[in-house]
Amino acid sequence: MTLDVMVKKAASSQTTLIGQREHCSLDPACLASLGLVLGSQIRVRRGADQLALYTVSETRQESIDTTVRMALVARERLAAPDEFDAVIDTEVVNTTLSDEQAREDSEFVERLDDDGRQCELVVLAPHGGSIEEHTDDQAERFASTLTDACVSVSAWRCRGFKTDGGAFARWHITSTDISEASFPLLRTIRRRGFANAVAFHGMSEPGVIIGGGAPLALKEQIAAALRTVVSGSNIKVRIADPSEEYDGDSPDNIVNRLTASGTNGVQIEQSLEARAHCGMAIADAVAGVYRLDLAQLRRKSTAGSV
Fold first, then answer.
1. Could you tell me if residue 96 is inside a domain?
2. Cys-Cys link to 167, which of 104, 121, 162, 227 (CB 3.0-4.6 A)?
3. What is the pLDDT of residues 107-127, one digit of tens each?
4. 6 with 83: CB under 8 angstroms?
5. Whether the model pTM is above 0.85
6. Cα separation of 186 and 114, whole Å?
7. Whole-number pLDDT of residue 185
8. What is the pLDDT of residues 158-169, one digit of tens each?
9. What is the DSSP string of 109-139?
10. Residue 88 half-sphere exposure toward CB, CA atoms < 13 A
11. Which of 89, 119, 154 is the last residue of a domain?
12. How far, in Å, are 49, 162, 207 from residue 109 at the CA level?
């Protein structure tokens, strides 16, 4: 569904908008008329060429209910420091295009490999394609490696493209904001309650940072495996410090939300150098840790049932 709107400056009281490049607000009546819930993502288009995804982080009663509000940094994603006319679209992912067509059309698509029932492990790449390059390839390699080892794994990833560059600015949605209401395939597995989840991400900082809500012991195993595969390079591997930008331990992070406990996700943040030169080796090393851990759990379960 699409709707013509006016994008205006955020009010000083709108604390979820100020300084947030991916957030916007809608009038509650407008939100309801679009069939959306708070926290949903929307597309906002300005003219023929400017387009970006936003999260509806709050509602605000407006005198004109087709008013959308954004902070300056959010409006600048659409090259518009001031107020402007726009069109919002509730269809976040294009559900019809192939990957090749999505690349040609500078589009955003969602993919899921899942048998509809397994709940042991899920791998994620929310920012694949040209958003955070190589992360979707890593997720697919991880899933393929474990499937070959007879481990059940589901793989959810998104791919976003922009032919003249800028896919990150157009399509990136922070992991704590990703809403299953806006991603049809994600919605099919959101309530599954996976025992384990791992997500591959890209970052602008050097090295590899391992975060997520999973136990420290698991993150230490992964860190040790990754240090082995990047040995001889300048790539440093470390575990995220609590409360730093890349710690990934928020219960709102999609990698944690997909787990049964809400706390058993692992987030792998990687520099472009790490992804480009060691991406497949990193995926294989992480898969190796899960293969061993899941095998050990199965043996304990079997022994306990005798």
1. no
2. 162
3. 999 999 999 999 999 999 999
4. yes
5. yes
6. 11
7. 98
8. 999 999 999 999
9. EEEEE--SS--SEEEEEEEEETTSTTHHHHH
10. 26
11. 89
12. 18, 12, 28
Look at residue 95 and tell me if it is in a domain: no
Residues composing the chain: 306
Q: Give percent helix, percent strand, percent coil of the chain, each to the nearest 5.
A: 30, 25, 40
Q: How far apart are CA 16 and CA 100, in angstroms?
A: 36
Same-domain check for residues 28 and 127: no
10 assigned to some structural domain: yes
The domain total for the chain is 2
pLDDT in tens, 239-263: 999 888 889 999 999 999 999 999 9
Mutual orientation of helices 272-305 and 135-148 as an angle, nearest 10°? Answer: 30
Rounded CA gap, 171 and 108, in Å?
7
* 152: containing domain: 101-305
Is the same domain home to 277 and 228? yes
Residue whose pair of structure tokens reads 């509809």 in the numeric block: 116
Same domain? For 164 and 289 the reply is yes
